[in-house]
DNA sequence: CGGGATATTGATTGATTTCAATGTGAGTGG
DNA sequence: CCACTCACATTGAAATCAATCAATATCCCG
């Protein structure tokens, strides 16, 4: 645990009294730095499980490359994907002793892994850093709440439009987006079936709202129209 | 801010390294104590707004009596209720500077209100307390994720069964539950229409799974059957 | 150049929504 | 004390959106 001591605690950027809803940039730079410095890089194959629901939450993960899906299952196999984690995202930092969901690699992914206890030890010594853990959980909560609105109240077109805009925003390649996940993954994220997702995408293509040079590569041609559908 | 100093910081019960998924009891006793000691009690009338989405998050709330709904709206008025807050629950503790949702009193409610800045000041001086804020956000996140599964993948019967069991568990009056909220509120929480909720409840009544002496008072007669539907 | 997984498209079904009455109950005023 | 009223809840019939069932089509990948 001496490695912890070597981190310059004052070099953090987010603090407890800090912004939170900051305009640009990821507000968790300090934790990200910690993970990068102390963590071990692991590679996961496509569809490989990172951890399962109910397993002890011993590690915290930072996505370096690739993408991760987190999900819950019903007894009969119905699946709801809670989030896709993209490069720069942190996941697995549950407050409880066990993970509340399963995490799997969507595609071959490189993750930086650090012991949760290390992060907690650091947080115990630094209130501002502890505040960053809170900010992370709160940001995820806000995302989840937006997803509740989508799942509870939006129709298929609106869900797909919201998803495409979200992906465009997150990958920052604004207009041409690469989808690492299958249609089934998208369906399980949006609470639809694969057929409905496919049909809805086709419909948007006929509208010329989007173009799809390849099934997993989508060009947003009319963001205005998508935004209209978004809410 | 001197009042902060008077709190015995060592009298807390939840700490950063603390349990989280603890069996019984609410794990946020310290924050609850803080709010009770420092807060002002306010009463809200039925349907009165506590705060609106986008307003500055200046205060933190503890429900003493009554119940609160938190929700988001779409532009055309579709509403998704994210949570019902019951006595003992804390809400409004957003990490960001503005609230991500609206909060309203479902019925006449008494709340203890404390300045957010007070809570943050305390957290800055005490890492374990800061950890408690994290635990609260993480617990809410976990609840939201369970709700994602419900909204994305459960049918109407399963949603209602889950809701009834949840209410029974939370009010601890295990078998006879009082519903402070209208059918419309329940519908907007479960992502259904009022008619579907009503029909589903009627169906459960015909099954003798439940009995409803009054429309807002439900007796769970066959929890086994409900649990079956729950997942 | 297969071949298996992934994706699209079509036809049909079905659960939930929508539209439309009707019922019920708590509070009010005659 | 009872009729009235308004909000809330239930029930029924019809419409609709998405799911299901069923073929293809396409794309990687070896």
Overview of this protein structure:
Two copies of one chain form a homodimer. In chain A, the strands form three sheets. Chain A has a four-stranded antiparallel β-sheet. Chain A is of the alpha+beta class and 231 residues long. Chain A is built from eight helices and eleven strands. The first copy, chain A, has two domains: 2-149, Jelly Rolls (Sandwich); 154-230, Winged helix-like DNA-binding domain superfamily/Winged helix DNA-binding domain (Arc Repressor Mutant, subunit A, Orthogonal Bundle), CATH 1.10.10. In chain A, a hairpin with a 2-residue loop joins β10 and β11 (217-220). At the A-B interface, β5, α3 and α4 of A face β5, α3 and α4 of B. Chain A binds a DNA duplex (30 and 30 nucleotides) through residues 155-156, 182-184, 192-199, 201-202, 214-215.
Number of beta-strand segments of chain A: 11
Per the CATH scheme, the topology name of the largest domain in chain A is Jelly Rolls
- Report the total helices of chain A: 8
First and last CA, distance of chain A: 48 Å
Question: What structural category characterises the helix and strand content of chain A?
Answer: alpha+beta
Please tell me the CATH architecture of the largest domain in chain A by its name: Sandwich
Q: What is the approximate shape of chain A?
A: globular
Indicate the radius of gyration of chain A in whole angstroms.
19 Å
What share of the residues of chain A lie within helices? 40-55%
The pLDDT mean of chain A sits at: 89
Q: How many structural domains can be distinguished in the coordinates of chain A? A: 2
């Amino acid at each position: 645990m001496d490695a912890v001591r070597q981190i310059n605690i004052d070099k953090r950027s987010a603090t407890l009294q800090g912004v939170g809803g900051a305009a640009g940039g990821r507000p968790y730079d300090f934790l990200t730095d910690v993970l990068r410095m102390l963590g071990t890089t692991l590679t996961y194959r496509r569809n490989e499980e990172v951890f399962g629901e109910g397993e002890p939450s011993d590690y915290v993960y930072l996505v370096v490359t690739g993408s991760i899906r987190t999900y819950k299952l019903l007894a009969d196999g119905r699946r709801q994907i809670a989030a896709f984690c993209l490069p720069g995202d942190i996941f697995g930092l549950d407050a409880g002793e066990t993970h509340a969901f399963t995490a799997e690699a969507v595609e071959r992914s490189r993750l930086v892994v650090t012991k949760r206890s290390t992060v907690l030890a650091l947080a115990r010594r630094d209130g501002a850093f502890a505040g960053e853990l809170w900010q992370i959980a709160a940001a995820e909560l806000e995302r989840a709440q937006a997803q509740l609105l989508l799942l509870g109240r939006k129709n298929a077109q609106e869900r797909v439009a919201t998803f495409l805009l979200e992906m465009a925003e997150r990958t920052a390649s604004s207009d041409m987006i690469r989808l690492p996940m299958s249609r089934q993954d998208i369906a399980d994220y949006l609470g639809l079936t694969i057929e409905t997702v496919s049909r809805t995408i086709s419909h948007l293509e006929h509208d010329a709202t989007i173009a799809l040079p390849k099934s997993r590569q989508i060009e947003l041609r009319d963001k205005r129209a998508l935004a209209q559908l978004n809410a």
